[in-house]
Amino acid sequence: MNSWTWDSDWPAPAKLNLFLHVVGRRSDGYHLLQTVFRFIDRADTLRFAPRDDGQIVLASPLPGVPAETDLTVRAARLLQEFTGCRQGATIFLEKHLPMGGGLGGGSSDAATVLLALNHLWQTGVARQALEKLSLQLGADVPVFIHGHNTFAEGVGERFSDVELAPASYVVLNPAVNVPTAAIFGAAELCRDTPAITPESWCHGQGHNDLESVACTRFPSVAEHLAWLRQYAPEAMMTGSGACVFAGFACRANAEAVLAKLPASMNGWLAEGLPEHPLAKIS
Predict the structure, then answer these.
(1) Quick check: is 140 catalytic?
(2) CATH 3.40.640.10 fits 10-161, yes or no
(3) What tens digit of pLDDT does each residue of 1-59 get?
(4) 7 noted as active-site residue
């Protein structure tokens, strides 16, 4: 699509962490990370309707999430405050990504709100400035603004873009909501994995330091991971969980694994994206 309008369906794609190392901790408690983010074609969808009253309204609040604390509403209000924009919007959110799944769904939704409304309101904030602004909403939001598969460092906001080969991914969802804060706060979490440089990383290198904590505390994560590793030994958890995944160069091989999935487990096939669908919007 070359023209994005109020009538458009705006995608908010999921991400996978192809590895995730905790390499230290700052004095303020934030963890220092290294990871590679890969976008996939599984996505939430957002639509927007203009409002003349300046209000931000979420048409269908998520169960258990007050509209005032929803990241989509906070993102829109942040852009209003930053730019002085007096326009409003009604936000329609169609969820496909599980909450607490490690796929970045909430962060991706927030990023798409910023990208979409910056375009629709014509507020003219440069993408790099939007990246910096979005960090106020969460550490994973800037990468979705950045829009490229990338090696990320710091708390997840310093990027070195990487080219990734096409791949099909089997993604399994254990259907538990893994709280990120509980995983990062675990005493047993490894926080001293040696740092690597973006130039030295190669596809298939690394692991997820959060995985063992999540597997111990949420047995269904361990169960899904063990099942997937029967067919793909390199399978790992994404983010702080709960979803686990494995990549395949051949889509037919991914389809064959997914066909074996027990009825008691939930999973799907996703294609790796070369970049975020909104990577070129301004």
Answers:
(1) yes
(2) no
(3) 458 999 999 999 999 999 999 999 998 888 999 999 999 999 999 999 999 999 999 99
(4) no
